Each structure stands twice: as C-alpha cells, then as structure tokens.
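Assess the record.
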Amino acid sequence: MMTKSKNITSSYHHGNLQNSLLNTATAMIAEQGIEALSLRKLAEKIGVSRTAAYHHFKDKNDLLCAIAAQGFVSWQAQAEEIFNNTELTDQEKYRTFVHYYVRFATENAAIYKLMFGSTLWKKAGDKQNSSQKLKDVAYPSFQYQVEMTLFWQQKGLLPQSQKTVRLAQVSWATLHGIAQLVIDGIYADASQIDEMCQCAVELFLSHHS
C-alpha cells in the first residue's frame, strides 16, 4: 500500500498518474458504484493531493467521461481483434463477437452502464454530460458497427433487404437488451447468456449462413 507524502506526486510521470487515477477510479466504480466515487476519495486512495487529481480531471463528470472513453477504446480493440482474426470464418467471427459483447457488458456492468447509460448521455435541458473526447470514441464505435454490418450484408450473412444503419441499430439493441436483462437480474441470469447469444446469432443469420 502506498503511503502518503508531500513528494509523492514527484514519483509519477504525467501519464502515469492519469492512468493510475483512471484505473483506480474504474475499480472503485466496479466495487461501489458511480455514487461512491469522488475526486477527493480517489486522491486519498492513491495517496496524492486533491490538487494533483484536479490537474488531470476538472470534476467528477470529466473523470466519468474519461472512464467511459477508456471502456469504448478497450471494447473496440477487442471487437477489431475478433473481426480481423483470419483463423475464424465470417460466421464464427459474428458468433464470437455476439458472445464477447454480452460477456463484456455483464462482467463489467458498472462501466458498461456508464458507457451507454443516461448518466453521461441523457440531456438535462440543453446540456449533455458527455465530453467531446468521449463522443470522439463513442460515435466511431457505432460507425464501426455500421461498417461491419454492411460487410456482413455484402457477404450474404445478414439480410440485404434492410437499411444498414437500422440493422446495425436493431442488432446492437438486441445485444444491449440481453446484457441489460442479465445485469438487472430480471428474466435472465448469467447462466443463460450463451443460449441467449446463440439464439440471437441464429435469428440474425437465419437463412443467410
């Protein structure tokens, strides 16, 4: 455990402290929820001054946006790894991605709800809590799904009769719904994830695989 000292920030490079703040905050959210997080508590947990924490994040919302953005980066990196895996057939890529999506969401429930939930995205009047940095990674993640949906349509795996954007929205909404049911604990639990994912795959790829 790190002990506090006046010179502790000198042991951190700029990027190291920011990463430490992000990683520790992510762990705190996973354990205790968004409400339990504050920059003051985060600084105390790491052993740095509040001033040092505020040097990297102007407020709690800024920190939450950074955590969500990191989640999108991690999520998309894994998705791209699946889609670029030359050892898998196109059908296997699609199936692997569906299972990965729901597993990612349910095993990182607090972060997932932050990434896609109303905390950062719902407008309060004219104001939206999502930062430009968050939008810059969140929106391309959906655009990537649109591109992959078009790819699967062209391959004949997904129905070509549907508009690509709508098909991407509906297929994403299906996976989001499965994940949310498991996260919320209503009508579904973790033991049913694989069967629900397989059902989704068969429905979407029906008559096209």
Notes: The radius of gyration is 20 Å.
